[in-house]
Please model this.
Amino acid sequence: MSNLLRAWYVFLALGLVTFVVTAFVGRVPTVLSAAVALPQDMPYRAGANLRGTLEAMVDRRDLRAENAALRDALAAARADVRTLELEAERMREILAIRDAQSPGVVTTAPVVGGSAGETVQRLRLGRGRSAPVVPDMPVTTPAGLVGIVTDVAAGRALVRTVLDPESRVGVTVRGKGGQGIAVGDVGGRIRVVRFVETDPVEVGDVVETSSYGGLFPRGVPVGTVVARLPEDPNDLRRSFLVAPAADLSTLLEVALIAPL
Model:
């Protein structure tokens, strides 16, 4: 029997079944209708499932992108908050220095380098002429005097600190008066020499700048007396060692005062 003839018989049989069902039942059973409709619905259902899958993938991709954007925005907001905190801290330090040391604070500058070891004789600042920074500007912190600007370029400045043996700072003793010169000494100390005292200087006394020399405003803390040096009975001038008020090895930022 040929394939064509076999197909013809199958077609007649399906037609007969359809006639019998519609004639005697009147309505095709739901189960049979669903079974017959199932193969016809398969392409539609497959397309719908594929479309739903693609939409879900797009939604997840959009959600990931949105989450990434929110994370970036949060990081930027945190950075802005930190910047504002640092600026507020900088302004508090400026106000503290203006109140306690000198109203002539011009600006602040970051410390970008300096001498190694405990005796920090030079510091490099990350601000220069445009800041504006000029030579002979006293450099200080809320804790006390750092030194003086000696050289300025476009974007940097060099500071000679109070620990440099070439440093010369006119000093007095708070509450006791007197007059002398502070110079840098070994071991991270300051030596006060040629000091003419009005009252005996003792360990623990606070040494601060005086008007002697005309480079520094009066009353800026320089350090604390840690030892009196042997005295010459024939010399009325005294010498003593001072621990610096500011820890020069850990400075991150300093304030600059307009030169006198």
